């Protein structure tokens, strides 16, 4: 068991996600990116894309620290949205990658110009560097290029490869490391392959999939996933086992329940989410509209719709 320090407050801002709605209303703990007259007059606007990135800002009486979780799909999408959100590179403590797929990593390239030659720590699982592909039933292949280790080195990024769980920000943020699989319905990505020792082989479990975990004082765990290839329920159970904290305050991110291969998992996933009874749940990115609607229907008090630019404030 790992002793995860409690935090007084954490703010999670969606930097990149698949959708944006500037007409969504804010409420005390959910600040939306509002539409203003400037949006119609040439002011830079936030953009959405098929990818994910989030800022995690941790606050204590002593200090604030901000971690970037994932970097989106396009080269400049994350950098652009950070500029619109007025987040400066020197505000970032480190970067964590949920896994090596391009819709979570390609935006690193656009970050380099903003970071300069600062030696920014970047934490990932070593399998994130594997060449991957998806092979469709008709034989069509979709390549999933990983981050380029040479470019990261050239740009002065301090790459930290870690399979095991690890702490950042003085023990207040836990990176889950490789997630233990315990459910019988979250069985991975059956048409996913990886190149190992120059040979393509099945890679359904995507072992580099990992999450960020925080513990809000008096509230419980906050769990942030990228795609949730390990399964969102496996991920939550892994976080509970690592920390010894059973109460779940918030689950945020992609749950990978979109498409014919994954939709049969919606029912058992939603049932397990109801049993966990989180106070807040924000399905985004690859969760899919069927699963998102099911979650909204079955957990109406906890559900919050995702939108680029949204900031959740989770406090003691």
Q: How does this structure look, described?
A:
The chain has one domain: Metallo-beta-lactamase, Chain A. 19% of the residues lie in helices and 28% in strands. The protein starts with 5 loop residues before the first strand and ends with a strand. It has helices at 77-84, 102-105, 108-115, 149-154, 232-243, 266-276, 289-298; strands spanning 6-7, 9-16, 30-31, 53-59, 64-69, 92-96, 121-124, 131-135, 141-144, 158-161, 166-168, 173-175, 192-196, 199-202, 212-216, 220-225, 248-254, 280-284, 311-315. Strands 3-19-2-4-5-6-7-10 form an eight-stranded mixed β-sheet. α1 (77-84) packs across α3 and α6 packs parallel to α7. It is of the alpha/beta class. α1 (77-84) links the parallel β5 and β6.
Mean pLDDT: 94
Q: How many H/I helices?
A: 7
The value of Rg in angstroms is: 18 Å
Count of discrete structural domains: 1
Give the CATH topology.
Answer: Metallo-beta-lactamase, Chain A
Task: Give a short summary of the structure.
Helix content is 19%, strand content 28%.
Can you give keywords for this protein?
7 helices; 7-stranded mixed β-sheet; 316 residues; 8-stranded mixed β-sheet; single chain; Metallo-beta-lactamase, Chain A; alpha/beta
Task: Give the helix/strand layout.
Layout: E1 6-7, E2 9-16, E3 30-31, E4 53-59, E5 64-69, H1 77-84, E6 92-96, H2 102-105, H3 108-115, E7 121-124, E8 131-135, E9 141-144, H4 149-154, E10 158-161, E11 166-168, E12 173-175, E13 192-196, E14 199-202, E15 212-216, E16 220-225, H5 232-243, E17 248-254, H6 266-276, E18 280-284, H7 289-298, E19 311-315
Parallel strand pairs: 1-15, 5-6, 6-7, 7-10, 16-17, 17-18
Antiparallel strand pairs: 2-4, 2-19, 3-19, 4-5, 8-9, 8-13, 11-12, 12-15, 13-14, 15-16
